[in-house]
C-alpha cells in the first residue's frame, strides 16, 4: 500500500528567511465539489490534488499538515446543525461526513506512497469552562517528526458553555498556530485566486492587514443560502485571527491540473508571477 | 435528537468507599457480533446495550467512558494488518471500521437522549521517540465535566519507532488510568462470565493478582486463528497492566437482556450474587 519511505525531517528541518517551517495546506471544499449545483463530492479532484500533495511531501516530509474542506458532503449537515435550536449537541452530526472526507484523502494519499494519518480535531481541541483553550497536538507533532502527513478537517468541538459547535476547516489551522510549529504558513486553496476587488475575473487584493478588515468587508457578498461557513467573509475572518497570532495566511486558487505546489514553501516574493494570491499577515514587508 | 438534558456531574461527584469515580465500560466485540461464524456486526445488540448505557448515564452523568469492541467489522482488518510485513503504516486501515463502530454506538445512544461524542484514540495517544507516552485527554475530561459520554474504540497509534500499531480496545482504558480520573474501574463485558477455570460452563476465577498471571495462563486456549487480539489471554494481559497502575479491572458477561448496569458502580462486595465476575486488582481485600 505504502511503498515509498519518506525521510523523517520534523521540527529540526532548516528553513531560509521567508520560508515557513510548517505549511498548513487547506484544500477547500469548493474545489472538491460544487456546493451550489450538483451537491456531489468530486473524488477525482481529491485524487488529483492527492498527487500534488504527495509530490510536495516527498520534498518536504514532516512539514505539511493537510486540512480538507468539507464541501458537498459537509455543508448540508452544517446548515441543519445551524438550524437546530433544541439540541446543544447537534454538531456531533458533522463527525460522520468529516470522517468520510478525511478517509477519502487518506486512501488516495496512501495509494501515492504518503504516510497519511487522519486525525479528529474534536479529540484535540476545545474550550474549558473558564474560556481557555484546550489544544493537544502531541500526536500531530509526533507524526510530523516521522515524516508523516496528518489529515485534519472541520469537526465539532466542545465550547466553554458545554455545548458542541462546528469548527470550520478555516478555523482548524488554529491548532498549529503555536510556537513549537512556527513559522507557520497557512495556504487555503479555493475556487477564486484571492479576495476579488470586483466581480468575477477582477484583480485580487494583494495584501490584507488582519487588524484592518474594513477594506475587505465591502468586497464581500452574501452567500449564506448555500454555504454554511459564510464563504469568503468567514474564511477571511478565520485567517485574520491566525494572522494576528503570527501565521502567514494565503488565499489562492486550487488547480487540480497544476504541475507543482513547491512554491507554497517559497518566500512570498518568489511565487510565480502568474500565480495571484491574497496574503493576510502582520507585519508585512512588501518586496 | 437528544431531548434529555443530563445534569453535569463531572470529576467533583462524591463517591463512597469501594465505589469508582470513573467507570470505563468496554463492551466487547464478542457480544456485538459473531467473530467465529457469521462475520456480521449485530446492530440490534448495539441498540439494546445502548439502552442499558443510557439508563446508567442518567444516574451517573459524566462518570462513564464507553469503549466499544471491534468485533466482526474490525477483526478481519486487524488480521490483515498483522500479516502485513511491508508497510509500517498498515494499521491506519483500522481507522475506518473503528469509526463505523463508534458511530453506530453514537447514533443509538443519541436516540436515547445521551450526549455521546465519538473520539479517535489515534489523536490522543501514542509514544514519543524516547519511549515515553503521549496521553492527551483534555477533551475527555471536559466532556465528562459536562455530563457527556465519550465513545472510544480500538485505533491505530504511533509507536516509539515511528510506525503505527493497533491499540486494542482492551488497551484503550490506559488513557483513563491516571490520577485525575481515579479511582477508576474498568469493566469489560464479554461472552463469558469471567476467566473460566475449566471448560464452558465451569466456575470463574474470582480474583487474579496482576503481578502473578501464571495461575491464569494455564487456563487459556489458543484462538489466534479467528481473533486478532488473542481473545482472553490478550484481554487479561492488557487488564493486568491497568491493574498494576491502580485500576480495578473486572471481566463479566454482557447480557443484552439485562435489566440494569447500576451494580457496575457498586463496591465489588455488593454485586448481585447471581453475577459472576473475575476481578483483576492490586491490592485486594476479599470481603
Automatic annotation (TrEMBL), chains A, B:
Keywords: ATP-binding, Kinase, Nucleotide-binding, Transferase
One Gene Ontology CC term in the entry: cytosol
Transmembrane segments: none
Domain Aspartate/glutamate/uridylate kinase residue range list: 22-252
Recorded superkingdom: Bacteria
Matching InterPro entries: AceGlu_kinase-like_sf, Asp/Glu/Uridylate_kinase
A molecular function GO annotation: glutamate 5-kinase activity
PANTHER family in UniProt: GLUTAMATE 5-KINASE, ISOPENTENYL PHOSPHATE KINASE
This protein's name: Isopentenyl phosphate kinase
Amino acid at each position: 500500500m505504502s511503498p515509498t519511505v519518506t525521510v523523517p525531517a520534523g521540527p529540526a528541518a532548516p528553513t531560509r528567511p521567508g520560508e515557513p517551517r510548517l505549511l498548513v495546506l487547506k484544500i477547500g471544499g469548493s474545489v472538491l465539489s460544487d456546493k451550489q449545483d450538483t451537491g456531489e463530492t468530486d473524488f477525482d479532484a481529491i485524487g488529483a490534488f492527492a498527487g500534488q500533495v504527495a509530490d510536495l511531501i516527498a520534498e518536504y516530509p514532516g512539514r505539511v499538515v493537510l486540512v480538507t474542506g468539507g464541501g458537498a458532503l459537509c455543508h448540508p449537515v452544517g446548515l441543519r446543525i445551524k438550524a437546530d435550536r433544541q439540541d446543544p449537541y447537534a454538531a456531533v452530526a458533522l463527525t460522520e461526513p468529516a470522517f468520510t472526507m478525511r478517509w477519502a484523502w487518506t486512501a488516495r494519499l496512501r495509494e501515492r506512497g504518503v504516510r497519511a494519518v487522519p486525525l479528529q480535531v474534536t479529540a484535540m481541541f476545545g474550550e474549558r469552562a473558564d474560556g481557555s483553550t484546550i489544544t493537544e497536538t502531541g500526536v500531530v507533532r509526533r507524526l510530523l517528526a516521522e515524516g508523516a502527513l496528518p489529515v485534519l478537517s472541520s469537526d465539532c468541538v466542545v465550547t466553554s458553555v458545554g455545548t458542541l459547535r462546528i469548527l470550520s476547516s478555516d478555523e482548524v489551522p488554529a491548532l498549529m498556530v503555536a510556537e513549537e510549529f512556527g513559522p507557520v504558513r497557512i495556504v487555503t486553496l479555493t475556487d477564486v485566486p484571492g479576495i476579488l476587488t470586483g466581480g468575477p475575473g477582477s484583480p485580487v487584493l494583494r495584501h490584507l492587514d488582519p487588524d484592518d478588515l474594513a477594506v475587505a468587508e465591502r468586497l464581500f457578498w452574501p452567500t449564506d443560502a448555500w454555504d454554511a461557513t459564510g464563504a469568503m467573509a468567514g474564511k477571511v475572518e478565520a485567517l485574520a485571527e491566525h494572522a494576528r497570532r503570527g501565521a502567514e495566511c494565503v488565499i489562492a486558487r486550487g488547480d487540480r491540473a497544476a504541475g507543482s505546489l513547491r512554491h507554497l514553501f517559497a518566500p512570498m516574493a518568489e511565487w510565480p508571477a502568474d500565480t495571484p494570491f491574497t496574503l493576510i499577515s502582520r507585519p508585512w514587508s512588501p518586496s
